[in-house]
Every structure is written in C-alpha cells, then in structure tokens.
Amino acid sequence: MSTVNSLLKERGLRITPTRKQVLEYFLEATCALSFQDLERKLSDKYDRVTIYRTLLCFLEVGIIQRIAIENGQRFLLRKNNINSHFTCEQCGNISGIETPLPPLPLPQGFVENTFILSIIGTCPNCSE
Ligand SMILES: [Zn+2]
User: Fold this and answer.
1) What is the DSSP code string of the chain?
2) Could you list which residues have their CB under 5 Å from ion ligand 1?
3) Interval 66-115: pLDDT, tens
4) What is the count of structural domains for the chain?
C-alpha cells in the first residue's frame, strides 16, 4: 500500500481523492504550508471549503500540526515533537526543527507547559 493510503488508514480515515492529494502535497513539501499554498495547488480540483475541512480533519487526527506565526499559521506533517520552527528571512519558508530543546531555567513559581522556539535566519537553500 502506498505511504499516503497507509497513513490515512492508520488514522482511521476513509481514503478520498481530496485527502490523498492534500496528504501527497504535505509529503512532497520541503517547508510548512499555508492554507493559501494548498488552495493555490488544489483549487482547480476542489473548492476551498473541502480543502479546509481536509486540513481540519488532518489536524484532528494528528497527521499534521499547526505552527502559529506572526501573520497567520502554517501546517506541516506531524513528526516527533516539532516544537521549534525556523523562518528564513530571504525566502520566507518556514521549516519544523526536530532538534530537542534543552530545558530553560524558569524563575521560581513558573511552571512550563509547552516550550515553543521560533528561530529567524537563513535557510540552507538561501545561504548557498
Ligand atoms: Zn530561504
């Protein structure tokens, strides 16, 4: 079975053409995608509501995860604990970073729940 089909089945999702194509796009993507990216790529085949519902469904079952950024949100495939993201100042691409974060000492009385790190710089494509 293809990766796409088995990923959908693993999460208990019925395999539909929209789900397959949205997931294929995520698997091919080298950086986090915006809803507009998905719309641009798939709007000739599916309406925006269908694309949006597919995105929500993937979020719900944990196939993808959301990254909150300054001017909106991006989505990427969920991997082991991506809680840092890197924004490239040159091309604007956002990538999930899987490097584990060292613990940050907090002032007394503060209890950590989630630790999200946002890094800004130059990606490998732009630093060549
Ligand atoms: Zn770049």
Assistant:
1) --HHHHHHHHTTPPP-HHHHHHHHHHHH-SS-B-HHHHHHHHTTTS-HHHHHHHHHHHHHHTSEEEEEETTEEEEEE--TT--EEEEETTT--EEEE-SPPPP----TT---S---EEEEE--HHHH-
2) 88, 90-91, 123, 126
3) 988 878 899 999 876 677 899 999 999 999 888 888 888 999 999 988 78
4) 2
